Structures are given as C-alpha cells and as structure tokens.
Amino acid sequence: MPTATKTKTQEKPAPKSAPAVLKQFIAGKWADGTGKRRVVSTNPADIRVVVAEGQGGSKEDALAALAAAQAAYPGWKKTPAPARARVLDKVVRLAREKKDELARILAREEGKILPEALGELEKGINLLEWYAGEGLRFMGDSAPSELPHNLLLTVREPLGVVSVITPWNFPWAIPCWKIAPALVAGNTVVFKPASNTPWLAQELVRLFEEAGLPKGVLNLVVGAGSEIGDILVEDERVQAVSFTGSNEIGVRVHTIAGRRGIKCTAEMGGKNPAVVWEDADLDLALAGVVKGAFGSTGQRCTATSRLIVHEKVYEQFVGRVVEAAKSMKLGDPMDPKTGMGPAVDEGQLETDLSAIAMAKKEGARLLCGGERPMKNGLQHGWFVEATVFDQVKPAMNLWREEVFGPVLAVVKVKTFDEAVKAANDTKYGLTCAFYTQDITLAMRYVEEAEVGMVHINSPTIGGEAQVPFGGVKGSGVGDREMAKDGINFFSKPKTVFLDYTGQARKSNIY
Ligand code: NAD
After folding, report:
1. Which is the CATH superfamily of the domain at 20-268+475-494?
2. Is the pLDDT of residue 7 over 60?
3. For a 10 Å CB count at each end of the chain, is N or C smaller?
4. Which residues does the annotation mark as catalytic?
5. 193 C-alpha vs ligand 1 centroid, how far in Å?
6. Which uninterrupted H or E stretch holds 243?
7. Would you place residue 71 in the very low, low, confident or very high pLDDT band (cuts 50, 70, 90)?
8. Which atom of ligand 1 is nearest to the CA of 469?
9. Buried b / exposed e across 91-121, counting CB within 10 Å, b at 16+?
C-alpha cells in the first residue's frame, strides 16, 4: 500500500487555508451529517492539505432526503416545464459567473489540471443550458387513429423521486448531465456524489439553491456509498436510479433496481482503443492519443488505454508517444506548466501501481514510466508517471482490465481485420478512435466497432450535450445519457385516446 512519505529534505511547508465545511442539504436546509464517519477531502497533489471536511451522512439522512423529495414532488410536477427550465437558466448564469472559482475547487479536490478543470466546467454548463432549452420541448406526440373523429396523443410525465449517484472523476459534468434532465422533466432528486469529491457537489447544489429551486426538489447526501447507497436504490419511494461508476457497483445497483422493477441507467467502465493506421496524420494521432491516454491522469471512462498501431508506422509512432509521455510534467494542477495531475487518492494510485507491476510480471515490455515519483514535492501527492507498455498479449490483465490511470498498452497489427479484432477484444464497449485518411476504411471501422461512440481522427474522449453518451457490452446498461435520451430516461409517455364525438367505438372493434 503506497503511503505519503515524510521527507527530511528541505520542503516547502504545506499551504494552509481553512477547509470548506461539508454539510448535507435536505428539504432546503444545510445541516451536519448524522453519520459516524467524517468525510475528509484532501488535495491529491498534496495530501497534507485538507480542502473540505464535515460529518458524513447516515441512513437516517438518506431517508430524510427521500422524504423531502417525496414531499416536494407534487408541487414540482405541477410547475410548468418552462418554469422548471428557467431555474436551470439561472444556474447557467450563476455557474458562468463562478466558473473560475469552481474550476479551482475541481483542480484542488480532484487533481485535474486547471485547463482540464475549466473544460469540465464548460461542458457541464453546456449541458445545463441544453436541458434548460428542453423545458420548452417537453413534448409528446400525436398519431392518426384507426377510428374516425379520434385523436391519439402522448404527453410526457415525470417518474417521481429519483436517485442520482455519481463518481469522482467528473464531479461537475456528470452530476450536471443527470440532475438537469431529471429536474426539467419534473422529478425530485436525491443526489449522492462520490465521497472523495463532495466539495464541488456541494457547490453545484448551492447554485440550484441560489437560483430559487423550491425546497426538497434537490437534496444532497454526502457519505460512504456502502452505507447509504443501497437505500437510494432500495427504498420504495425511488422510481429511477441514474448511476455512473465502477462495474462492481453498477451491476449491484442495476440488479437491485431490476428486482424492484424500476428504471435504471448504469454507465460503467471502459477499455478504449485508438487505432492508428499506416496513412494516418501522425501529428494529429499523436496529439489525440496523448490527450486520450494521459489527460485527466487517465481517469476517464473514455480514456485511451489500448493503442493499436499499423506495423508500417509502429516504430516511429510509438517512439513519439513514449517521448511525449516522458516529457509529461507532473505537478501542482494549479501550475500552468503542469501537464498531468495526480491520481485522485491512495486507492487509485495503488490500482495504477498494481496494474503496472502485474503487466511487468506477465511479460509486457515497459517503454517508459511505471514509477511513483518521490522527490520535488511530488511525494506529498498521489502521483504516478505516464506509462507505456508494448508487447502486450490479449490474455494479459493490462489488455483486459480497466486501470483508470495513465497506463497505455500498445500492440502492433498488419491488417484491418486484425485491428478490428484487437479493438473489439474486450468486455467493454464505451468508445474508440480510428486515425486514417481513407474514408472507406474509416466507415468500415464505424460499422465494425462494438462501442457506443466512435471517433474518427479525434481522441476517444469527449461528448457533447446534444448527442447521446454511453456504451455497450460491460460499459453500460439502460438508456443513454445526454441529449433527448436523458429526458426520455427521466420521464414516461402517457397515451391519451381522445374520442371527440363519442360515436366511433359503438360500431367498431378497436
Ligand atoms: P464507484 O463505483 O466506486 O462509485 C460510484 C458511486 O457509487 C459513488 O458515489 C459511490 O459512493 C457510490 N456507491 C458505492 N457503493 C454503493 C452502493 N452499494 N450502492 C449505491 N452506490 C454506491 O466508482 P468511482 O471509483 O467513483 O468511479 C470510477 C468508475 O466510474 C470507473 O470504473 C469509470 O470507468 C466509471 N465511470 C464511467 C463513466 C461512464 O459514463 N461510462 C463516466 C465516469 C466514470
């Protein structure tokens, strides 16, 4: 188990500033959690610094949040959708005003470098904005009837109380893309963020409060998932669960929701390939692969973790990837010179280092990285070097299992069929990239790829508010997120048969 090291060399003392105070937000009131454990959020780049702290939530807090959401539901459901959306409009405005401050919180709490943190802020704001527009388009359909003087209509309705359970790696954007459609569709929400990124979650909820969201419509419970997670899925008041996180917890959540017969979407892991073909623009591919593999310290469900390179450009291209990885500057996420931040916490660092050790043991060749740096102040954080292995075999763990860190597995291929086989050789199916200048090959790859999202000549990462986001196979189950799909998940159609003369059915079997 890696531990933070006490160094005897001359070190700058840990910067001191008072930690933010973490609270629960239930029925419109901020209150201390009543759980036994404290939630302590540290800066992963310097774990001597506590950035936020408070008493964790208990089962009773989770139950109180559900009761508050249940009580607020009838009023919120009756609020016209355009009026619901106007609250989101205000959140958009407030978030834009506070964007820099929120990005700094994100960088300090999760460890993303500041430009990436600003990118995540912008993405979340885009999502809020897109769903604010959906308030004016919360529409059903009409259809011709088999009968004369009859009209068939559908109207969309909310589901009721819904649970939103989110991971730490996109602690702003993921809650935005779940909470926004849930609220616009008229549901009330209990939100449980990951317990290692509670501060930013709290700031998001504050924006909704400031925007005038009625009490109880959005509730926040902060605490360990093992203690309060099950309640947010099992409780009979919960009508849907939107989860993003690991496969282990996602499958558990989906199983419980299935047993209860409620809607559930579970977005889970990825093992995403980038294929670089012999005719690819190698500068473009290099930028995309480096960003995909090492951006956000590889802690993205959409990270590029497998690189498949055509033999004709293999030596040249992989050599350039290794050079880029070696020159990646690790450091304080707030420093503009930093290229890659730390792992989010000790557990994730341990996962990264174990995956590296296992890859070595299984016979993959380490081309660069592989170590935890222990000097120049980096020993105070959960840093790991940008790491590249080649000679990776399909049976190896590094090819099969998600690491969720900056560790890239590389293989060489000769033919298109070999590339497709390698890319699809995974239990996951979230996203992939293909770099080529041959449109026929690109479109053949689009046909063959077993994923939810394909990128041609761009990195495996990213998504936009107006198109669906999600995966196939082990990467996700349930409806897609974002776009119209988000609204559809959080609502259901009610079919109306409107017989406006009352005569048609007298003489008809329909
Ligand atoms: P995690 O599964 O450990 O935790 C996710 C959330 O579930 C947290 O809020 C956690 O507290 C909660 N939780 C824990 N136990 C629970 C229980 N028994 N019942 C209900 N909730 C419970 O995941 P993580 O470590 O926070 O995030 C990393 C994982 O998320 C990676 O596998 C990554 O691929 C995945 N991820 C997927 C996507 C996607 O869209 N596909 C996006 C981001 C992250």
Report:
1. Aldehyde Dehydrogenase; Chain A, domain 1 (3.40.605.10)
2. no
3. N
4. 267, 301
5. 9
6. strand 238-244
7. very high
8. 40
9. bbebbeebbeebbebbbbbbbbbbebbbbbb
- Matching CATH topology for 20-268+475-494 and 272-456? no
Determine the average pLDDT of the residues in 320-348. Answer: 97
Mean local confidence (pLDDT), 38-54 = 96
As for ligand 1, residues whose beta carbon falls within 6 Å of it are 165-170, 192-195, 225-226, 229-230, 233, 244-246, 249, 252-253, 267-270, 301, 402, 404, 430, 471, 475-476
Residue 510's pLDDT is 58
Instruction: State how far the alpha carbon of 463 is from the alpha carbons of 116, 174, 316, 466, 481, in Å.
Output: 14, 11, 30, 9, 10
Residue among 109, 195, 268, 481 to mutate when testing ligand 1 (max atoms within 8 A of CB): 268
Measured in Å, residue 245 CA sits from the centre of ligand 1 at: 2
Mutate to test the pocket of ligand 1, among 37, 169, 255, 351 (most ligand atoms within 8 A of CB): 169
pLDDT at 58: 96
pLDDT of 502 above 90: no
Question: Mean per-residue pLDDT for 210-237?
Answer: 95
For ligand 1, atom 26, which residue shows the shortest CA distance? 167
Report the pLDDT averaged over residues 295-300.
98
Ligand 1 centroid–CA 170 distance in Å is 11
Total-model pTM: 0.95
CA dihedral 278, 280, 284, 286 (to 10 degrees): -10
The minimum-distance atom of ligand 1 relative to the CA of 348 is 25
Q: How close is the Cα of 169 to the center of ligand 1, in Å?
A: 9
Domain-wise residue ranges, the chain: 20-268+475-494, 272-456
Is the pLDDT confidence value at 331 over 70?
yes
- Tell me the helices (H) and strands (E) count for the chain, helix number first: 16, 23
Name the residue among 119, 228, 218 with its Cα closest to residue 175: 218
Residues 6+ apart with CB under 8 A from 324: 286, 290
For the domain 272-456, what is the CATH superfamily, name and number? Answer: Aldehyde Dehydrogenase; Chain A, domain 2 (3.40.309.10)
Compute the mean pLDDT over every residue in the chain, rounded to the nearest whole number.
Answer: 95
Residue nearest to atom 39 of ligand 1 (CA): 267
